[in-house]
Amino acid sequence: MPGSFKTEGVVLRSIRFGEADRILHLYTAERGRVNAIAKGSRRPKSRFGGRLEPCFRLDLMLHEGRSDLCTVTGAETVDGYPNLRSDGSAIDAAARGCDAVLRLLDSAEPNRPAYNLLCRYLALLDEGARGDAAEGPGPWALGLAFRLKLALAAGFSPELGACARCGEREGIVSFSGAAGGVVCGSCEAGSFPIGAEAHRFMVAAIGGPIAELPAASESSLRQVERAIGDTLSHHAHVNLRTAA
Ligand SMILES: [Zn+2]
To answer: Is the N or the C terminus of the chain less surrounded, counting Cβ atoms within 10 Å?
Structure first.
């Protein structure tokens, strides 16, 4: 039904279009994935200013017409995450996070946990980039925790509590994307080894606050990355870019 609506949203991708317009791929609080055109937004005196850039969190007024593209009629900044933009590794982690949302959540259904998670993730990267925050997890660990929580919000959380094939709780030794979780020694065909530290990291990342991650070595984080990637490619048919 044509008409205007208000929603908060994060710019996932901003594409130059025509002479002076932009096409925005948005993840919104009220409507999930929305694509919109911002007419004249690349003109120097555009009323939108510089805020239609990736990773900006905006209060939006959108007009829905007959086409698949909404039209942006208003946009105010809720948070531009300014520190993030001056830190190469933080902005890169943020861009990869936005890309993961684009690939994993393509439906126009609202998903509040996913929206809130994206905003929280950007805020944490921004805090980390400010430099005065307490020593927290690095962008790679944070990016992997974000993906695990995003997988949960999208309905593709891996099984971590017991062997995904036989239900055995003891003797977990590896991870199988096809089985969709950790597997025991008897069921390890087609899986790859996963250490206790990587397993703990995944359990904590899915079950706890994203800012309170247990320490994990580089080799553990590599196992976590592979576990997430294999799970999503098998079950969501989505291949994510690497997290860092
Ligand atoms: Zn088993």
So the answer is: N
pLDDT band at 133 (very low <50, low <70, confident <90, very high): low
46: nearest Cα among 81, 26, 29, 22: 22
Instruction: List the alpha helices (DSSP H) in 175-244.
Output: 196-207, 218-235
The rounded Å distance from CA 188 to ligand 1 centre is: 7
Tokens representing residue 232 in the block = 């999503």
Q: What percent of the chain has pLDDT over 70?
A: 98
Compute CA 61 distance to the chain's CA centroid, rounded to the nearest angstrom: 23
Q: Which of 91-100, 105-114, 134-143, 151-160 has the lowest mean pLDDT?
A: 134-143
Closest listed residue to residue 105, CA positions, set 211, 222, 10, 203: 10
Report CA(154)–ligand 1 centroid distance (Å). Answer: 25
Residue corresponding to tokens 């509590």? 161
Taking CA 95 as the corner, what is the angle to CA 84 and CA 118, rounded to the nearest 5 degrees? 80
Average pLDDT over all residues of the chain: 94
Query: What is the mean predicted confidence (pLDDT) over 180-194?
Result: 95
User: What does the pLDDT read at residue 199?
Assistant: 97
For ligand 1, the distance from its centroid to the CA atom of residue 186, given in whole angstroms, is 5
The tokens describing 184, both together, are 């025991």
pTM: 0.94
> What is the 195 CA–ligand 1 centroid distance (Å)?
16
Ligand 1 centroid vs 243 CA: distance in angstroms?
Answer: 29
Ligand 1 center to residue 164 CA distance, Å?
7
